[in-house]
Amino acid sequence: MLFTDGLEKVTAGDARFVLSHAADASGLQATLTQVGVTKPKKFTVTADPGKEGTIAIPADTYLVQVVLTGSATVLASETINMADQSVSFTYATGEAANNSVGLVNKTLQLVF
């Protein structure tokens, strides 16, 4: 699979989260929930097999949970820091059938 890491400008105060679906699974949905705040906001992005989903979000720290689209069973979960004007390329890998889906993150800072 080949994914092109887009480096389009990120607005000040924001970050970009890119979910790249390289796992052996049907469509995936990532939910990003702010951590360490009183009223956390949630953001979601989906990606079909071999595709990417992208979302602009406020710069902050997030709990990322990945599920099969339409499911509630968490396949992968981790916390990531989304710095101001950064891009996180998050690759979902592994197999849903044996619960081995994991996330590989590559973050680029100061994309402006």
Q: How would you portray this structure in words?
A:
With 112 residues, this protein is an all-beta fold. The chain has one domain (14-107): Sandwich (Immunoglobulin-like). 0% of the residues lie in helices and 54% in strands. It has strands at 14-21, 28-34, 42-47, 52-58, 60-68, 74-82, 87-93, 102-108. A 4-stranded mixed beta sheet has the order 4-1-7-8, with no helix packed on it. The relative contact order is 0.30.
Largest sheet: spatial strand order:
4-1-7-8
Structural class: mainly beta
**What's the SSE pattern?**
EEEEEEEE
Radius of gyration: 13 Å
Strand content: over 45%
CATH architecture: Sandwich
Instruction: Kindly give the count of domains.
Output: 1
**CATH fold description:** Immunoglobulin-like
Low-confidence blocks of residues: none
Distance between the ends: 27 Å
What is the name of the CATH class? Mainly Beta
Number of helices: 0
Main sheet makeup: 4 strands, mixed
Number of strands: 8
The quaternary structure here is single chain
Fourth CATH level, the homologous superfamily? Immunoglobulins
Using the alpha-carbon principal axes, give the shape. globular
Features:
4-stranded antiparallel β-sheet; Immunoglobulin-like; globular; 54% strand; 112 residues; 0% helix; mainly beta
